[in-house]
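User: Please predict the structure of the protein below. I'd like the answer in structure-token form so I can feed it into my own downstream comparison script.

Assistant: Understood. Taking the following sequence of 195 residues as input:
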Amino acid sequence: MLLEVAETRRADAGLANVSFVQGDIRTFDAGRRFDAVVGRLILFHLADPVAVVRHHLGALRPGGTVAMVDFDLGAARVEPPVPLSSVFDRIEVAFRAAGANPRIGARLARILQEADLEQVASYGFQRYLGPDDPGGPRLLAGVIRSLAPTIVSKGIATEEELDLATLEQRIRDELVENDAVLLPPTLAGAWGRRR
């Protein structure tokens, strides 16, 4: 389904030099060299991200660039804290229980260095969502909804404790009542060059 959407948009934009191929990021081999390898929200899900980056260096011309973007949940919080701030703890525990690393963004530069890239640099970007911004409660409730099966099956919280039907409104109410700002996960990135 996603490949069909991507192909339709590519065709509508008239981009003849762009193609989409389904494959396993750990083993994919395009059989040719590229100027850049770019990954967005990929390493988060992998047990050995250094090995995956090293694997893709084989498809990168000398001097080519690797750029990776992922999340760092470590800086996410509500300021000042409110009772439902604990949802960040549940999110982190659930992601880890599912085999993901929700703080990998903080390690992206190290991952690229360990994969033998040079001139590695990194950045981070984090939004500040005010108490009246509906995006904060929608974001948090959406992440909890998507993780709810893991949260419940791993005993992190019960369905009753999550109360998904009212979660977004409860988050919104606590933010407004406490004039609190929600800081979602940092979007982190790092890039480097192949020797």
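That's the full token string. The helical segments are 2-13, 49-57, 87-97, 108-114, 135-153, 159-162, 164-177.
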